[in-house]
Amino acid sequence: MNELLELSAAAALRRIEAGELSADEYFEAHAAAAAGEELNAYLWRAEPGEARPAPDPEPGSGRGAGDLRGMPIAVKDLFCTEGIETTAGSRILEGYRPPYTATAVRRLGEAGARLLGKTNMDEFAMGSSTENSAYGPVLNPWDRARVPGGSSGGSAAAVAGRLAPWAIGTDTGGSIRQPASLCGIVGLKPTYGAISRYGMVAFASSLDQCGPLTRDVTDAALLLRAMQGRDRRDSTSVGIEAGVELPSREDLAGLRVGVARDFSHHAEGVEPGVAETFERALATIEELGGEVEEVELPHASHGISAYYVIAPAEASSNLARYDGVRYGLRVDGERGLVEMYERTRARGFGAEVKRRVMLGTYALSSGYYEAYYGRALRVRTRIAEDFARAFERCDLIVTPTSPSVAFELGARTADPLAMYLSDYFTVPMSLAGIPAISIPAGLATPPGGGPELPVGLQLTTPAFTESKLLDAAHALERAFAFEGAPR
Amino acid sequence: MVIDREQVLHVARLARLELSEDELETMAGELSGILEHVDRISALDLDGVEPTAHVVALDNVLRPDEPEASLERERALAPAPDAEDGAFRAPSPQAR
After folding, report:
1. pLDDT tens digits for A32-45?
2. Cβ–Cβ < 8 Å for A232, A199
């Protein structure tokens, strides 16, 4: 394998800055790897030899060009890219070429990054395994009989499989963190509002957030810094006022690290290998000078229930736009407009998307609204209050990222609820809108035996304290010294 | 069963989604299973708890109302399955 593919983005940038590596050579090495990939991680790739130049910064944006010096980046196919097919993993958007580019992608371009490819994903970001893509599942580079997680499974597999130095994805209930955990890489979901959602195909608008999937914590900080900030095209984007510091911390001295009993390795359904890795991580935290404190998150275990009302409710509304009129697929019938709608959506949406549109429509329908949607919004308040109270006693909270290591392809496709429970540890932070990061904490043997697979540790801190979160993650990353390469 | 075949059919109409006979059956079972799990929150005491629809504490975000160029008509129409005379074309809502 080309040794350039082993470099983290920050390491490559240092070499490019020192004149020891050409940006084009680095890009081409990845374009060639992406062209020959066998994981189904990409839906679109830059042709080798055809790197597109990075665009100039928007006039008056105050953004300097060139920090990212022509670095290749893989982008989840949920982000609109002008003139380049954007499918969101759905048949209904097959062939769709957006007339504009998402702000997050645009900002990466302004910072000097170049688009390497668009990555495969669960249809409309609905799923935890990337098996819901209309374009076939993505394979986990650690074990090709297993899923990479989802919904940003293509981005995670591309980074872990050395098909991209780094990538961006989106996280609504765990769609960055869970695949990062299952693929042994770093995945950051920033605070809701840190990065503009403009040009991101909408799933659940009060939860959707863009973030990086990277080899290490420093790379995640670099991408967050390039993308975050207020955007007049997304009124919910506020940016991180304090800015983003590159992480440097090497210990956790003086930090109080919260662990909630029902929301840790003691939770129901956590695999033994994941529990052991988590316990070792707690010991590492103490060795680094952190104080492990027990905290209470009494409503976190209800996160899945609240999430699987709120997210489908918002999705059923957002996906009403796929009506065969303005873009995407149209299937005509004989009986006019409504039949055209019904047939287009029947043909264009996959099973999971239909399930969620149905669930959301039901939860919002007359007679059920208060029992489901109304109550779910109140549980959401309770979950946010739980975190706020816990953060009075600790600086950060840690959990396993996922109850399991990567599972086998097909293992959960027949049982939607089992798939939803993959998000047990990640959904509450999304509901509370706070930042959370998954970093690889070690390897564990899967329940049925076989080669060891990565296990992620999730860290979370109060809203807009990404610099602190990244610093703590950096100290732990050094201590874990995870060997991040699939065999 | 929390939700039966008739209810599934009703919701599918609301969602403008044509479902096959097979889909109607499996959907009733799957949605019921999910809703049973969701129903755990019905046991919580939530009296007096304010709902949270959005986590960012933002009031209205305003900007000066200045005219500016937006997406040109041709570019907006380019991805449409059917467009004519500078407009999207769709079947008649009256047709039966």
Report:
1. 999 999 999 999 99
2. no
